[in-house]
Every structure is written in C-alpha cells, then in structure tokens.
Amino acid sequence: MSVDRFRFVSPGVFINEIDESQIPGPPALGAGPVIIGVAEKGPALVPVTVSTYKDFVDLFGAPQPGSTRNSDSWRNGNRANPMYGAYAAQAYLANAAPLTYVRLVGDQDPAATVAAGWEFPEISGGPATTTGGTYGLFIIGTGSVEPLGGAGEGMLAAVFYLTGTATTIGLSGALAGTTNHTAACAALIEPVSVGSNKEFKIRIEGPDQDTLETSFNFNPKSGRYIRKVFNTNPQLLNPAITADANKKNYFLGESYERSVVDFVQQLSAADDISRDNFDDTYGVILGLQSGSAKGSDFRRAYATPATPWIVGQDLGDNSGSFDINSSVEPLFRVHSREDVEYAQRNYKISFSDIKQSPNSNFNPYGTFSLLVRSIQDTDENPAILEQFDNLNLNPASSGFIGKRIGTRTYSWDTVNTKWDVDGQYDVRSKYIRIELSDLVEAGGQEAALLPFGFRGIPVHRGFNAVSGSTTLVNYDLYAGTPDTNCFSIFADGASGTVPNPVNEGEGGAVYFGGSSLIVTASLLTPSLPQRARADDGRLMRLTNAFFGLSTNQGSDTLLFDGSIRDLVTVLPEGLTSGRTILSPGFSLDDLCPATSGDHTSVAIHSGSDLGTYFNTILGDSDDISNLDPWRGTPSGGRRSGNSFTAVSASYTEVLDLGWDRFTVPLYGGFNGFDILERNPFNNTRALGGPDESTKTTAAFPMYYTLRKAIDSVSDVDQININMAAVPGITDIQVTDYLLAMAEDRKDVLAVVDLEGGFLPVTEGSATGPVSFNDRRGSSTDTVTGIDARDFNTSYGCTYYPWVQINDTAAATRVWVPPSTIAMGVLAASAARAELWFAPAGFNRGGLSRGSAGLNVINVIEKLTADQRDDLYEVNINPIASFPAEGIVVFGQKTLQATPSALDRINVRRLMIYLRKQITIIANGILFDPNTQITWNRFTNQVVPFLTSIKQRFGLSDFRVVLDESTTTADLIDRNIMYAKILLKPTRAIEFIALDFVITRTGVEF
C-alpha cells in the first residue's frame, strides 16, 4: 500500500477538523467521489482529479443541458445529450473537493463481436436503384471549351449518408448536353443559376420522408448554403428518439467549401476565379464503396488525435528530389492530452521563433516555441491557449520539449484491468503531450535539427474518369492507381437509353447527353488548405504569417473555414495503404521569394527590400498542377531550386529573414460513439437492456466501456476516493457492478440510480419517442423494481425521484437523475457540519435555493407521506417537496437490508472516514519494531483522533485495545500487530414522537 496516495490533501472541511483537534501525525485524507460520465472534452477514460469547479471546466468543459438547437452535430459534435455526470461534478465541487472524474468515450472489448462507433448499410443495386450507403458529390470543371469536351478536373465537394431500403439520391437539373433530367443514377448535371450564386440541385427520395428537392451552394453567407438546406443531424435518422414528423433518411456529413473555392472554381474559368463563379462546372454523385471498404464504416474504438510528424530541415543535398513526406527526418508528434474529437475541432498547433543556435560550437541545439491555439483564430489575432517558449531537442537540457510539455500516456492492461503509465516525463500541459521519435528521445539526431515543417495527413486516393472506351470500367475511390482503376463517362446514345452498369454494387455509369464519349476528368479528394502567400489576409507585418495550415475560408477572407473540421476527421475503416495517400505536407525549406507576381524568378531579398513570400508547394494560383498530390511528388520550391534554403544552401537563410513559424493540425480523433444516438450510453439500446443472458461486453461496446471505467477506479492503492456514481445509468448489470466495486474496496459509498423512474427523451423506445407523461415513471414502479434485486449492502444508497434544475449558464431547465443532486447534498452536509452527520432533512438536505450546488426547482413526482413510507421501507431515500419548506432529501438509508448501525449513510460515511484516517496512522509505524513502544505510538495517535470524533458527535464512545491480549507472542513471531478498535457510532434522529397533553386548568406543572 503506497503512502504517496495520502498526500492528496483537499483544502476543504477535513483539514480544518484535524487542525482544530491538534492530532499529531499525518494530515487528513483528501478523498472525494469519483463520477463517471460524458463530458464536452478532456482525457478519455482515465481518472483525473480536480480541486475546483473552474479546474473541472477548464479540463472537461461546462455541463451541457442537451439541446437540438445546434443541429449540425456532425461537424460541431453532439450537444443534444444532457451531461448528468458534469452536473454532478458541479454540485459536489460547489461545496467540497477534491473530485475524480472519468470521462466516457466509446471503447470496445478486445474480443468484440460488435465494434464501437457506427456504420450505415452498404450500397445495394445499381446507381439507378441506389439504396442506402454513402455518396460523394463531385464537382467537375471542364474549362471554357463549349460544347463540352477535352479534359476536366473535379473535387469531392460533399458526402451524403443514406439509410433505408429504398432511399435514392441524385442531382436534378439539366443533363449536360441534352434535356432536363432528374438523376437517380450518376449523371453529369449542369448547375442552376439562382441570384448571384451558381448552384446545384439535389433530389432525395425515400419511404420515410417526403421527397426533398432543393438548390444549394457552397457560400457560407448564403441562405442556400449547403449546410443550411440539408439535414446535418444524424440523430434525426433514429426512429427510436425522433418523431415521424421530424424523421430523416439521410444526412449531410462532410462538405468541403474551401476546396470548392480554391480548386474547382479556379478550373471553371481562367478569367474569373471569384467565389460565385461556377461557369463550365458540372456535378455528379457517385457511390463511395469498394468491396469491403465502405465510406460509412466507422466501426472502431475511440482514438486520440495528433499532428502529423513534425520534421526537421533538409540538411542534405536533396534540393532536386526533396519530398517532405520522405526526405527529412521525423522529430516528434504532438498529441492531444488523451482527448478525442473535441481537440481536433477546436485546437491547432503552431511553432514560432524557430532559431538556430547562436554558437554551434558551444551549444549546437537551436530553440523554438510551441503554441496551442484556437482553431478559429487568425494569424492577425492569434488566440493562444497555452505557450511553451525556448524549447529545444536536447534531452539533457531543462528546455527539452519532452520534459517541458510531457510524454506520459496510458495503456490499458486488459489482464489486470488497470491503466499502465507509459513515457518518461509527466504531462505539464492542459491540452497536449509529446511523442518523441526514438532517435530524438535517445538524443541521437543531428543537433542542428529544428521543427521545420510537417508531413501530410492520410486522405483518400483520387481517381480518373477516362473516355475512349465503350465498356464501363469500374471506378474505385479507395484502391489502385489513377490510371488503372477508373470509370467512363458515357453518352446516353441515340436511342436515349442508359447503359447498364457493370458491378453495380460498387458504382455505376456516369453519363451525359450526346452520342459519343466526350469528357475525361480527374477526380480528387480534398487535402489540407495551406497559406500560399505571406500577404494573404491583413497582416501589418508579413513575417508574422504562419505558413502551413490555413483555417480561413479563403486567401481573401479572415472568416473561419468550418470545413477544416471535416478534413481532419478520421477516415473510414477498411482503407489500406493502397487506398490512401499522404496529402502535401509543409516545410520552411519550400519558401521562395516572389517578384512582380512571377513566383518562378528567384530573388533573395534582405532588409527593407523584403518582397512577398509564399509556399510554393501549393503552386501558383493559376496553375493547379501542383495541387494534385495524386500525380506524383509536388514540385515545391526546394525541389525546383527556387527556395531560400535551396539558393543559399543553408537552412538559416529563411530563419534570418524572419520566416520562422508555421501551423499544423491535429487529426484522426474519434469518440467511438454511435452518431445516431443523442445519448450513446442510453439504457434502452446501447447497454443491451435487462436480459443478462444476452448481454456481453463483446456484443455491447458501451456496456464494456462502463465496466472498464469502473475497473479503472477499483484499485484502492491507486485511486483515492470515498464515493462513486454513474449518473443517469439505471442498467441493472452496470449498477450492480458499481456496487460490487464499492464493496470490494470497502472504502466507497456508491450512489446508484434505479429503473422505474423518469425516462429521458434520449432513451426513446422501440416504437419511437414517448410523450412526457408516459415517461414520468412512478414511485410504485421504482419500488417494484428494487424489490426484485434483493439489495443488502451498506456500501450503496439510492434516491427518488428525478429533479429539475435551473441551469443559469445555459439559460434553460434540465431534468437530472437523483444521483446528480445527491452528490451535492453529501458535499454540502459535510461542509456545513461533519460528514458523519445525516445528509438529510431541512438543515442539511435542503435542495432549494442552490444549497446543494445546483438550483433545484421541481421534482418529477411530488410524493405523499404514504409514498415516502413505501420508498423508505425498501431503502430508497425520498426527495420530497413541501409547500413551505421547499424540496428536501428526506432519508438517509443505505441499501443494507439487515438492521444495524450501517444501514444509515451517516454511519457508513463515518466508518469509511475512520478506516482511511487510521490507515494513515498505521502506515506511519509499518515496518517498525513490533514492541510495546511502537504499540504506544499507535495508540497515542488513534485515541486523540477518536476522541476528537467523539467530541464532534461522530461517536458516542470508543475503546482501543492493543496489548499482549491482542498481539500475542504467536502474532509477533508472524510479524503481525493486531489491535481492536471498538466503536459506538452516534445515531441520527429520524423519528420524533411528541405527546401534547391537554390538562384541566387546576393542574399544576
């Protein structure tokens, strides 16, 4: 048993108690509850202890009340699920500290038969009878040639996900080269003109909703912006929680507005590359599936995001063959601090002040700064969340990046069900940790190396649509090379018929009017947008430009580009290396001078004659050849010999000129949740229901995740807690597992929620959403349910009913489970009196006016006296509402059926406290001589401590016996000291009997 765990001392009431009693020995144990629940952000599945509510919000985010007002849950995350665990943390931390929180994400059993995450059905039938699956909208620019002909370039512009048995999607409008057409298959369609925007029109049909046919564009300022006119909330496809009137059979996932602006529209017309120009562009919708690789296969466990590998400068002579993805040495990666999708949606990483060593003979290592920035900020006005200056890559230095930021991470030991700690250095950042390359960790890299850029991130491989064949060649978005796996764009022929596609399950024909094959197109998928020039934007000083990742909507605007969140999302499962490719990375080695708008002329400027500089890895704005990473290695400035470092043959040139900063994304995080669910841990579907015979951790990943979260706090030597709760979880097997953990530790009171009470709208049912009145639950159902479970443990307790709180920060009211408010009551009671006082009644159990940390304003059921009696008889603590006194906790029973002092919460909490405190004292004499002197030292500490508890009404009496009668000679020979501590806990008044005797006038008192 480690003594280190007793150093976690809270600044709460326990310290004052010990100071007042003047007891010698160790300080009071800083134990608090563990709460398991979802959160907006923060470390995933790892127990983390916080001391204040501010610390909790900084790390895990504020509680979310659950709302569907933010319908774009695909891009912005699920905010529709009330975060009961976070509310419980708020209630407790308002009155006491510390608190340990375990943030839930979606994990899966190593032997899972059903994986975490989500998946849509495969595409079935040919493109003319498309049902279900994933579909990409490609916009193709064919140049200014009329009629259509020659080569075209296209880009994936949006992805639609369809469910149902007869749902179809297609572009609607003028079939290119012929008459109007509504395409349920893959047809090349012209845009329609609406106002100043050139727009497309999509038609979606299906049995579960009315036919949708609407125009859209890619201008975020427009009322017909694609994410405004289409459903972006996957939860509306779930019939269990969505009413028929609101139900959808599709949702829009990714959309790539910046790619449309930067790439497709530049191809549309050589003379006009404005945002609203779509001349000579055409659209086609294609199924995204190839054999086992499906565009909607996101069945996987959670993953934490990271940057691509940060690489050093090119110290060799690679100017003629430079490739950022292979030519230079990887140094380290920046990972989020065990966070998942929130980190990549909200943070970006920047490097600045990159400096070579001023004296390479004395110290060959240079320095740099690392910044954690808001993804929505601009280089003109950076929002820096955290900054580390004067970092270096010298493991012997105090400024070593590994030491300054930290490398520690966690791996789950499935055999011993515990977290193992990996990495040498404690994490000192609130947001990130560092993964070092083996060479850098060992100090074996070239000392002059500095962060100079980053490798690309994995993206889908592009493919070509080629003409010149009368036989359809199947296209494959995920595999092969651009020239061998392709598809043909067919004419509909003189007869007006559509050719039958081959291999219908994997794509189909793409056709438009005319009698011959007339278009060849290269279709690409988006890669990261990057700053092209230093004068993009409105920088007062051009050298303040951060090259690399750009999160603006375009080079001519400072508005945030929301599509960056789609670019950094995780790719579908089943993609092999042949189906993906690294997008262009970035290096300061590629920066070149620009003179007179001609980026190919090399001119090294200095002093006040600095010109405008841009990243030539992206090529000229009028030349898209270098934007296509699928055609070979991009020809950047160093490869072509035009960059500063190529011309000067020294990496220091670009730094000396002040170009010493760049930005890189976090990517690849995944929360492991089913995006169709508002509450991924709902008791109705996600946890498998009450049938224990069919419930396994392999078949129900969210059930496995909850058990893993409970396992993570089960080791008494590693996790210092005294209470536990999983608010909102009523599943029998999960709550039984929580109670079993508490009983096994014997120093934890588990607060559980029961079936039979209020049913949140997130639960739903097999027949769809249930009305509020039908979801209210009842005390009768709750009593019936607990009767069947035969509880008999003093290490658990429960409450009824659900209560409504007023969340002033969110300006809304929220129904929360009783365990949420119980955390506040238990904390408030100990703060006002002592933890061994009963946490109930009008003095310490009042809930009105925020006394328990949350502003409780209502209960789902106002209990009568008889209902309170029924609940209390089966050890359910009622939460009562009185007209004058307000809402109050009116009971303090544990779940122990056997009558004893431990059937009350105040006694159980007293015993947990005493066990922990006396264990501290015992640890102080462990391994000392087993003699009378040591016994006296133990007794001289325990007796004053228990006397102070008695004086503060925790005990009515006690006795400590430690002598030859307890520690016999035989025990001494076995290295055992044995003491007996006899306790008489003080009982709380729960029943008051008063006789009012009315006497005659003549009676004397």
Number of domains: 3
Q: Give the neighbour order of strands across the main sheet.
A: 2-3-1-37-38-39-43-44
CATH secondary-structure class of the largest domain: Alpha Beta
User: What is the CATH architecture descriptor of the largest domain?
Assistant: 3-Layer(aba) Sandwich
Return the structural class: alpha+beta
What's the tally of helices? 22
Query: Unreliable segments (pLDDT under 50, ≥5 consecutive)?
Result: 1-29, 125-130, 143-150, 177-187, 268-278, 466-518, 596-634
- Do you know the CATH topology of the largest domain? Rossmann fold
Our estimate of the beta-strand percent is 15-25%
Q: Estimate percent helicity.
A: 10-25%
Report the average pLDDT across residues: 80
Secondary structure: number of strands? 46
Based on CA inertia axes, which overall geometry fits? globular
Q: Give the CA-CA distance, first to last residue.
A: 63 Å
Radius of gyration: 33 Å
What is the makeup of the main sheet?
A: 8 strands, mixed
Describe the protein in words.
There is one protein chain. With 1005 residues, the chain is α+β, with helices and mostly antiparallel strands. The protein has three domains: 3-111 and 673-906, Rossmann fold; 117-299 and 468-518, no CATH class; 310-459 and 528-665, no CATH class. Helix content is 19%, strand content 23%. The protein has 22 helices and 46 strands. The strands form 13 sheets. Strands 2-3-1-37-38-39-43-44 form an eight-stranded mixed sheet, with helices on both faces. Strands 5, 6, 12, 13, 27 and 30 form a six-stranded mixed sheet that branches. A hairpin with a 4-residue loop joins strand 40 and strand 41 (812-816).
